[in-house]
Design brief:
22% strand; alpha/beta; Ribosomal Protein L25, Chain P; seven-stranded parallel sheet; 12 strands; Alpha/beta knot; 2 domains
Length: 245
């Protein structure tokens, strides 16, 4: 069985004792049915994995002992910042999860004129916490040792006004394919709209902010498909899909 990976928001070091909270303890003991002496991989986002051994198996608080530390995950050659239009429930979760698996460096959920999802402050705070959980779970599954950044959800206009390096706007109306763009240096911002896409005015604002419109083939992609196809293509052209760093 594959060794479970668990994110902990705690300092880690060989020889340290770690107590997991109830939710993670229940997952290890009730779902995975781990027993005393079995191994667990811990990470806290500092770029390393820590091997640990289960000292006890309680549902409410499981204790582990860190034994060894692994190699540091290298920083990416290309940092991709995804500005993603907020979409409904599972579509948004899917896009976030797969963006993490594909190596995105930072994500900002964006509200646009055509956003179907409207959230009051209380619901937005809960949704933001949920999205953070999606990112952590994707890191646990994919083996990432550094957590991608998740910025607070923002309005598109405000996000564009902050300035972005190497901006790419996904726009099926554009005639320019992605490989025609010059290779970015170290940072690239990718803008993808929600269901229904961006309005003419929003696309114009993005271009005025320095974004270049590109198309991904002859088909119109769904809001949860478009960012993943674009990130994969970007990684293949200029990022870590080209080989080990």
């Amino acid at each position: 069985m594959r060794t479970p990976r668990v994110y902990v928001d705690l300092p880690l070091a060989p020889g340290a004792r770690v107590t997991l909270p109830a939710a993670q303890s229940q997952h290890l003991t009730l779902v995975l049915r781990l027993v005393v002496g079995e191994s667990v991989t811990l990470f806290n986002g500092d770029g390393r994995d820590y091997q640990a051994q289960l000292l006890d198996a309680h549902r409410t608080a499981t204790n582990l002992a860190c034994t060894t530390v692994g190699d540091e995950e290298p920083m990416p050659d290309l940092r991709i910042h995804l500005g993603l239009g907020v979409s409904k429930g599972e579509r948004m979760d899917f896009a976030l999860q797969k963006a993490v698996e594909l190596g995105v460096h930072r994500i900002t959920p964006l509200f646009t004129g055509r956003s179907v999802v409207r959230l009051d402050p209380a619901r937005l705070a809960k949704r933001q916490a949920h999205w953070e959980g999606v990112l952590i779970a994707a890191c646990e599954q994919s083996g990432r040792r550094r957590l991608p950044g998740l910025a607070p959800a923002d309005q598109l206009e405000a996000w564009l006004a902050r300035g972005h390096v190497g901006g790419i706007l996904l726009d099926h109306r554009s005639r320019r394919p992605l490989p025609d763009l010059p290779a970015p240096a170290t940072d690239l911002s990718l803008l993808v709209g929600p269901e229904g896409g961006l309005s003419d005015a929003e696309r114009a604002a993005a271009r005025a902010a320095g974004f270049t419109g590109v198309r991904l083939g002859p088909r119109i992609l769904r809001t949860e498909t478009a960012p993943l196809a674009a990130i994969a293509a970007i990684q293949a052209l200029w990022g870590d899909f080209r080989g080990a760093t």
